TrEMBL record:
Lineage per the UniProt record: Bacteria, Bacillati, Chloroflexota, Ktedonobacteria, Ktedonobacterales
Domain spans labelled Transposase IS701-like DDE: 17-236
Protein name, per record: Transposase IS701-like DDE domain-containing protein
Bias type Basic and acidic residues, positions: 224-242, 411-420
Signal peptide coordinates: none
Region (Disordered): 212-251, 395-420
């Protein structure tokens, strides 16, 4: 099946997931994909591919319905399979959509604001979304979205991440490695993920305590030791003798050293076998975002090549580039929709556009500005600039709008009430108790 046929099939199957206001929602998909000059949500209605008036853009997200479960299955089915013997690298992270002044929006929670200069309270209020992506072989914004869900106030990003992985991993049909940031350093998640048919490589916090296997019984009175010697990343006196050391270069030819300790565990789950890995990069700037020494935990096959797996963690930064493209180019956080359900529909539209650009990568001639580097691989935004020509060939599964006459408007004497106000939810729920699988 060629790329054009694949893209057509994806478009028609994704359109079938729109259960209500399907035509207006799909017009929004095509408008967002082919109008790179739009700087706001409302400007999408000025696109030639949005065949309706601008109020229909907002009504589509108010009245529309999307079968998200079916859409997730379509995303997985159209994922390009890896080369034989290779892994599918999966990234998962949570991103905040700030709505600090939106008092009429329900279920807003306190959200940490990253990458700010030093300040006392880097906190805002809004919604949080957990996104699972297939990562490209080179860190870039060419990620492929597999699932995108909102983290409501009754749950946590860690719980939502496990739900997403539990539903996606069985559908992949290939060996997968999940890369987790330091925010997912949670024993509960490690235990749950150990039952999945995928390996997990996660960043460790510097104060995390792990333990070696317990020594044999001494024969003395009293209960035998349940844990061996401690290993804590920030305490060099606890590192002891590793099980292996590798010195070499990374994919860019820069020196790197990998040290690992096998058969480790945590007190809360002694049955869970872990491998602790330290990666030292002498060329790093040793700042918070570029540390010289990084610590990881590997949950999976204890006989796997942990050195190559640890060096592959650099692919996770492609998810950050994908987030930047969605927010800056695809206007993900620009849409001022009132309810979280409306914004969830908008998030699915953004994901559909993002994945279509990935599938159309070999079908469109990238449109470069005079100052853009022609020696680099094209970016999704450069492909997006040429999507208008491709859409004329592909056509649209949406039906043309039908005239319905002039609206009667409100009844005489009808009073419009003020929109309901909602307080910010500041308390976050805790993870459930740890239960061995």
């Amino acid at each position: 099946m060629d790329s054009c046929t694949t893209l057509k099939g994806f478009r028609h199957e994704a359109y079938a997931c729109f259960l209500r206001s399907a035509d207006a929602l799909w017009n929004a998909v095509d408008a967002l994909m082919s109008t790179p000059q739009a700087t706001s949500f409302a400007e999408l209605s000025q696109s030639l591919w949005f065949e309706r008036k601008w109020p229909s853009l907002y009504k589509a997200f108010v009245r529309g319905r999307i079968d998200e479960g079916r859409l997730r299955s379509i995303f997985v089915r159209y994922l390009k399979p890896p080369k034989p013997g290779s892994w599918v690298w999966i990234g998962i992270d949570a991103s905040s959509i700030a709505r600090a002044e939106a008092a009429t929006s329900a279920d807003r929670t306190a959200q940490h604001v990253p990458n700010l200069p030093e300040c006392k309270k880097p906190v805002t209020f809004g919604w949080q979304f957990s996104t699972v992506v297939a990562l490209p072989s080179v860190p870039s914004s060419w990620t492929y979205i597999l699932d995108q869900r909102r983290v409501d106030s009754q749950t946590t990003a860690i719980e939502v991440a496990y739900e997403q992985l539990a539903s996606l991993v069985p559908q992949l049909g290939a060996k997968a490695i999940v890369l987790l940031d330091r925010g997912y350093d949670a024993t509960w998640l490690w235990c749950r993920c150990s039952g999945l048919q995928a390996g997990v490589l996660g960043r460790l916090k510097s104060n995390r305590c792990l333990y070696r296997e317990a020594p044999p019984p001494t024969g003395k009175r009293g209960a035998p030791r349940k844990d061996g010697d401690k290993l804590q990343p920030k305490d060099t006196s606890t590192h002891g003798h590793p099980d292996g050391v590798f010195s070499g270069t990374d994919t860019k030819g820069r020196p790197v050293q990998v040290t690992f300790w096998k058969h480790m565990h945590v007190k809360a789950a002694r049955w869970l076998q872990l491998t602790v890995v330290r990666v030292v990069r002498p060329h790093a700037s040793n700042k918070e975002r570029d540390p010289r020494s990084s610590w990881f935990v590997w949950i999976g096959d204890q006989e796997a090549d942990v050195v190559q797996i640890a060096l592959g963690y650099v692919l996770r930064f492609g998810q950050e580039h994908g987030y930047r493209f969605d927010k800056q180019a695809l206007l993900w956080e620009q849409a001022r929709l009132r309810t979280p359900e409306q914004f969830e529909r908008w998030s699915q539209v953004v994901a559909i556009v993002h994945n279509q650009l990935v599938l159309a990568r070999g079908l469109v001639q990238p449109q470069l500005r005079p100052w853009e580097n022609r020696e680099r691989q094209p970016t999704p935004q450069q492909i997006r600039r040429g999507m208008d020509k491709l859409l004329r060939t592909l056509g649209t599964p949406a039906c043309a709008p039908q005239p319905r006459g002039k609206s009667k408007g409100r009844q005489k004497g009808e009073r419009v009430k003020k929109a309901e106000r909602f307080a910010v939810i500041r308390k976050r729920p805790k993870l459930p108790h740890l239960v061995p699988l």
